Amino acid sequence: MSPIFGPAVRDNATEFRLWAPGAEQVQLVRDGQAPTPLERSGDGWWKALVPGSGPGTRYRFRIGDLDFPDPASRRQDGGTAGWSVVCPPLPPSGRAQALRPWHQAIVCEVHVGTASPEGSFKGLRDRLEHFRDAGYTALEIMPVNAFPGQRNWGYDGTLLFAPAEAYGSRDDLRALVDRAHELGLGMVLDVVYNHFGDFDNFLERYCPEWFDQHMETPWGPGIDFTKECVRRFYYENARMWLEEFDFDGLRFDAVHEIGTTAREQFLGDLAKSARAAKRDAWLIIENVNNMASWLDREASGGPVDFTAQWNDDYHHVLHFLATGEDRNGYQDGSKDPVADLEKAMADGFVHDGEARGESDGTTRNEPAARLPPDAFVCFVQNHDQIGNRADARRLPDRLDAARLDFLHFVTMLAPQVPLFFMGEEAHMRTLFPYFIDLPENAAGTKRRDRYTQMRESFDEQVEDGDLPDPNAPETFERARLDWTEFDLDERRAALDRFRTLAAWRREHVWPLSASPCTDARSGRQGAAIVVSWLFEAGVLSMALNPSSEPVDIACVITAPPVSTGTHSRHGESLRLEAWSAVCWHSPASD
């Protein structure tokens, strides 16, 4: 599929292209040159083939009195309102598949701007050995497309094809991916296709046809995916990250906020387009509606559409059991958290098969038990669960090391794909508050919106003045990992325990999860749960006690176990002390 968005570099000229169906006239503005008119070419397109405008040419478009960058700019000079720069595609790597099989993913979520002192692609590249040595096999990078200012979570982007100048160049990003691959680390990029950031969103001003004016997201007007050209923009973006930058996969943010009638068509074709670029790409969705059909498998075991979904259900119940906090998706006091945990471990989702028709986000539809364990990405912390707290604190500030080790044990050794947030491997306490970098008039609106969001969306009863100023540089600095902290005895000890868990996953889980999972069976005894996943290669079993009291259970351990916490065995009786778990695997008999 040849791109139709962005400049096309020819032998001695560049074709500039802009989709603006409602425009009366469009001009190309080049740095230091007289404006060049573009010609209407049908289907809403404006084009001009301009000699002498090769790589390095700085340009904008002009409609009326509005000058703006190319929405498909591959490189920016001067921020999201600055010059777009012509650049040729990066050379392909020649790889048509992901670095490793998906079931081998042990994922660390990383924010480039705070993962190193430099806050850059180069800074992260120079620290990749830490992630490899910790036991990770993949990094999931929060969005890196151009955003306003020098600091941002990444979800307020308006130019989706251009890597953020604050992090480095296109070549720097490709070098980061290449180095990760040399070290055996797969790379996933988080992309946002459900909205644009509202600052420097020129599209809304000159191309209202891009948006469905009758649909709102929590962040602004919804995108009109009924239009073929609009859908094509995102297909091309996904392919660029997979082909030019050689990412192994993509994580699609909040697909449940895509509300147009063409959502099904868009998501299905998005997956097909990405797989045409990299046939076994790791395609991960965030979807509170828990639509299991997007995760269905072919007869061969490969995904029909998407590879996996972030599993909030798993997080919510484990978070409640560990902390007692009845929020973050677990406000219903009538729920039985032990039963919900049992269902999450065996079936994947807690909330499924509960709703008919359209879900309201608290009840979900489509039973998930038919899905394999690796259709779910499970975690006890991520950027949302930390950053959308008023205090922006991580679990080590609320839990002792033994309880956090229990959470890591269960997440790492269950056959679902585990994800951890950067620094979690060493029980780091670095805050991760929400941060932006905007002019003061725009920052004031964002501050007010943040208080509304915390109160209404995240159930945080904050008073005015309670939250850190998201626009203050010191708020951003508080989120930056302090790499000297890894030298502390407590951090080194936690990291050693994490490495052991990762080694156990390779030894006990990978040999089984490389084969199809045919069933999952579970049983509850008091507060304890025993879950067995039946793979063609053998059986993986886990007994866990997510409570503060010891539990005696009847349980036959058929192979040498590994464990966290304290347990003892007496014949066919297993005593699990508070917050302890045992795991073992039995290979298939000949």
What structural class is derived from the secondary structure elements?
alpha/beta
- Please give the count of helices: 13
Oligomer: single chain
Radius of gyration: 25 Å
- The share of residues in helices is 25-40%
The low-confidence runs, each spanning 5 or more residues with pLDDT under 50, are none
Dominant shape:
globular
Strand content: 15-25%
Distance between the termini: 48 Å
Q: Give the beta-strand count.
A: 30
The largest sheet is: 8 strands, parallel, barrel
- Indicate the mean pLDDT: 93
**Which strand order do you get reading across the main beta sheet?**
11-12-15-18-19-20-21-22
Protein name: Malto-oligosyltrehalose trehalohydrolase
Catalytic activity: hydrolysis of (1->4)-alpha-D-glucosidic linkage in 4-alpha-D-[(1->4)-alpha-D-glucanosyl]n trehalose to yield trehalose and (1->4)-alpha-D-glucan
Family: Belongs to the glycosyl hydrolase 13 family.
Pathway: Glycan biosynthesis; trehalose biosynthesis
Notable traits:
590 residues; alpha/beta; eight-stranded parallel β-barrel; 30 strands; 25% helix; cytoplasm; Ig-like_fold; glycosidase; EC 3.2.1.141
Q: Describe it for me?
A:
The chain is globular. It is 25% helix and 24% strand. With 590 residues, the protein is of the alpha/beta class. This is Malto-oligosyltrehalose trehalohydrolase. Residues 104-499 form the Glycosyl hydrolase family 13 catalytic domain. Its EC number is 3.2.1.141. It catalyses: hydrolysis of (1->4)-alpha-D-glucosidic linkage in 4-alpha-D-[(1->4)-alpha-D-glucanosyl]n trehalose to yield trehalose and (1->4)-alpha-D-glucan.
